[in-house]
Each structure stands twice: as structure tokens, then as C-alpha cells.
Inverse folding.
């Protein structure tokens, strides 16, 4: 018997209270801290990581979580395409932000890892709003406690570079190289989709392929089509625990200009939804949406697109959780 939705964990309906009223939380869900008496009942936790110290050019993703929270008040409860209501399937809550040190990268990553280690220990599935893409590394350190994870990664860039600026190893261009080196990810179960743009060289791609990473450029995605590529991605992920990382710059800057490293020739907003919906059946144990930079899109359209993708990811996380229990 499917469980009945817990009224405590339901989002506030705009039919009952205007979207612009009250203190904003992700999806208008309850905001809980570990000392709350319902914290142990949370199954999916929405978390902000307002930190962008790994950015190498255009800063601003540290402001992403606040904007994403605000715009998420527009999200309704049900996905009309697949019929999933994540709030009916799982107990969801806003778990607040990680107070990551903006002045010390190593200290910030320690703080993020400690937060996510506690989340993992509590049995909560994290849906993260970044922050730049370096955020994913300490998140994975907190999640991959029982062995390497698989990953389905949507991005214009591989983020498999080794170093920047004469040997510095921790930027938003290096997280997944570090994650593979630290055995947080199983490279043979990692697929990267949407890669494009000019390049310095092919070192990042060559290294990834040597490790067993599957790299699908945007041209291949468009030539083969989303269903075919995502069928391959599901095969690569298999049935083992898998993470999803979604960089907003996989989407063409015509739709998502508010990001630090935009690349032309990306997917449309609708194609982005299609990509995430094709994660159905993957054993997802966490996801992130990163690199929304509000200063570069005064219209707020990138933020609205970002939180809409977060909702799609939540649907897949809720479905995966239901399939496990």
C-alpha cells in the first residue's frame, strides 16, 4: 500500500496563500534543522550551498541558492508529463544552507562534507542548489561513504581538468577529476552529456577516456537524439547508486545566460526537461543544480529555469526512493 502524504511535509499552495507572501523556502516546504522533532522523518532534503570560491572567471553562483529559493515559490506539486508528485511520494523539506567559508576553499569543503556526511547518516537524499561546480566534490565526499558512485553529468564542460594557475587543484573545472582520483566516483559508471565549446587542448577529455568515462558531445546528442543517448546513460549507470549533476550551462545561453561560463549551441529549456525525465529508473541517491549566477541575468529567467530543473530532478529522486523502499 502506498503511504498517504504527510500533511506536515506538503508545500504551501498558492491557492491558499499567495506565492509572494511569507518567508521563502525551497518549493514552499517546511524549513527544518536537525533539532526539529520531524527532522528524522525527512526523506529528500533541499539544500543551498551559496559558495563560488572555485570560480575562475565570472563570479556570482554564491547568490544562486537565494534566488532559486525565491523563484521556487512558483513550482506546483505535480509533474503533468510523468504524473509524479514528489511531495506525495516522499517527505521533503528545506534543510537550509551550508555556511561555507568564502575565504578558504579547504575549510569550506570541509564544512560542506561534514554537512553532507550528517545528511547521509540521517538517511536523507540531498537535492543541492549551488554554488559553482566545485560544490559537487565535497558533496560527493559526504555521500560516497559505502564506495564509489556512478554519475550522470549534464554540462558543457567535463570538469576533468587537473590544475589551474600553476598547479592549483581545486576549481570548478576540476571536481570530477578529484572525485575519480579519490574513488568517490567509478569512472566506468560516469557519463557526461552535452560537452561543447572551444578548448585549450584535449587533456581533460583524453584523461577521462583513459579512466573509462563516457563523454558525449553535444553534436552526438543531437545526432542520436535524447531517448537513445539517455538509454545508454541508464545502461552505464546500471542498478547501483548513482548521482546526477546538472550544470545550468548545458543549456544554451539563449535560455540560460546567467552563468559563469556560457557556451553557445546547447540544449533548449524543453530538451533539458526531457533529459532529466529520461533518468526514470536510475538508482539516484542525490543530485545537484549548479552554476546559476543571478548577476548575469537581471531578468531572472535563468533562476526560474534552474529551479524548474530542480523540480524535475526531485521527481526522479522521489521515484528512485520509492523504488528502493
Amino acid at each position: 500500500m502506498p503511504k498517504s502524504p504527510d500533511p506536515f511535509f506538503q508545500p504551501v499552495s498558492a491557492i491558499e496563500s499567495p506565492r509572494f507572501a511569507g518567508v521563502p523556502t525551497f518549493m514552499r516546504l517546511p524549513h527544518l534543522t536537525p533539532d526539529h522533532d520531524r527532522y528524522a522523518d525527512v526523506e529528500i532534503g533541499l539544500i543551498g550551498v551559496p559558495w563560488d570560491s572555485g570560480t575562475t572567471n565570472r563570479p556570482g553562483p554564491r547568490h544562486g541558492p537565494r534566488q532559486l529559493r525565491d523563484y521556487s515559490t512558483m513550482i506546483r506539486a505535480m509533474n503533468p508529463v510523468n504524473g509524479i508528485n514528489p511531495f506525495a511520494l516522499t517527505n521533503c523539506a528545506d534543510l537550509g544552507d551550508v555556511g561555507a567559508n568564502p575565504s578558504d576553499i579547504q575549510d569550506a569543503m570541509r564544512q560542506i562534507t561534514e554537512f553532507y556526511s550528517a545528511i547521509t547518516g540521517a538517511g536523507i537524499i540531498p537535492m543541492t542548489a549551488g554554488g559553482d561546480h566545485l560544490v559537487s566534490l565535497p558533496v560527493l565526499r559526504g555521500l560516497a561513504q559505502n564506495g564509489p558512485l556512478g554519475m550522470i553529468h549534464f554540462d558543457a564542460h567535463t570538469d576533468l581538468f587537473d590544475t589551474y594557475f600553476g598547479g592549483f587543484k581545486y576549481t570548478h573545472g576540476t571536481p570530477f577529476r578529484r572525485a575519480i582520483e579519490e574513488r568517490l566516483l567509478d569512472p566506468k559508471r560516469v557519463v557526461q552529456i552535452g560537452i561543447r565549446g572551444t578548448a585549450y587542448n584535449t587533456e581533460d577529455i583524453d584523461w577521462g577516456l583513459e579512466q573509462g568515462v563516457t563523454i558525449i558531445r553535444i553534436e552526438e546528442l543531437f545526432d542520436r537524439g535524447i531517448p537513445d543517448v539517455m538509454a545508454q546513460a541508464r545502461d552505464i549507470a546500471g542498478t547501483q547508486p548513482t548521482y546526477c549533476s546538472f550544470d545550468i550551462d548545458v543549456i544554451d545561453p539563449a535560455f540560460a545566460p546567467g552563468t559563469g561560463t556560457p557556451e553557445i549551441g546547447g540544449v533548449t529549456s524543453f530538451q533539458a526537461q526531457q533529459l532529466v525525465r529520461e533518468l526514470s529508473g536510475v538508482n539516484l541517491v542525490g543530485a545537484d543544480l549548479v552554476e546559476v549566477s543571478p548577476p548575469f541575468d537581471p531578468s531572472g529567467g535563468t533562476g526560474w529555469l534552474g529551479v524548474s530543473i530542480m523540480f524535475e530532478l526531485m521527481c526522479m529522486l522521489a521515484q528512485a526512493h520509492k523504488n528502493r523502499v
